[in-house]
Design brief:
Number of strands: 3
Helix content: 40-55%
Oligomer: single chain
Strand order of the largest sheet: 2-1-3
Strand content: 5-15%
Order of helices and strands: HHHHHEHHHEHEH
Number of helices: 10
Radius of gyration: 21 Å
Largest sheet: 3 strands, parallel
């Protein structure tokens, strides 16, 4: 608290950054005090969860992925998981993120998709192209055939009631993303968060290196999960 007071009195940084830093500090305090010292014996856990501990439904312990083999390898995404998809530029990381978001939303799971690069309109256009199996480049250039446009219109009907929420925020600080997610969580249940992409996030203030900054960002997202 004293650190926040000092920054306010010095007025060395914009008020928005001071608020974000204060929120980060308080969040760390909360994460330290939450769920520590809550010991449990194996038998207690078995009594609490019963058969679901040994044989989860649907053959997956967590949220199913769009790819059967990946679900078998990972047992799906469980609550609290932090999954980082790595790859070179243009390898399809954003496509994977959107496919996972759409698949989860179709299962009735609330999904928050945070895009730091593409606009909401571009993301929806790409999603519709994938649902209708129409080349997104042809659709974007307006050279789709009549049959392709018909399939796209039919695909749009599948968007109604889909619990998929998109935010194309320009605030790239993890604390701003966390704040937006908490607001959404207060209105509806969220079971999956997709952030596209990690390299565009940045911390407020200074860091010794980009490696240290990314490490702190990942730790922050893990605490958020």
């Amino acid at each position: 608290c004293q650190r926040v007071i000092d920054q306010c009195s010095q007025s060395a940084e914009p008020s928005e950054e001071i608020l974000q830093m204060a929120e980060t500090l308080l969040g760390r305090i909360g994460s330290r005090n939450a769920k520590h010292g809550n010991w449990a014996r194996p038998w207690d856990l078995y009594e609490e969860h019963g058969a679901s501990l040994l044989s989860p439904p649907r053959g997956a312990a967590g949220l199913e992925t769009p790819w059967k083999r990946l679900t078998e390898m990972t047992s799906g995404w469980s609550p609290g998981d932090l999954v980082i998809v790595g790859g070179r530029p243009g390898a399809g990381k954003s496509v994977i993120g959107m496919q996972q978001a759409y698949a989860a939303a179709r299962q009735g799971v609330g999904v928050a998709y945070v895009s730091l690069e593409m606009s909401k309109e571009s993301l929806v256009r790409r999603l519709i192209a994938g649902m209708s199996r129409v080349d997104s480049h042809r659709s974007r250039c307006g050279v789709s055939t009549g049959e392709e446009r018909r399939r796209q219109v039919e695909a749009c009907a599948g968007l109604e009631g889909l619990p998929l929420f998109i935010e194309d925020t320009r605030a790239h600080a993890p604390v701003a993303i966390s704040s937006a997610l908490r607001k959404l969580k207060s209105k509806t249940n969220v079971g999956l968060v997709v952030i596209d992409h990690l390299q565009l996030t940045k911390l407020t203030g200074r860091s010794e290196s980009r490696h240290q900054e990314l490490s702190e960002i990942c730790h922050g997202f893990k605490r958020l999960a």
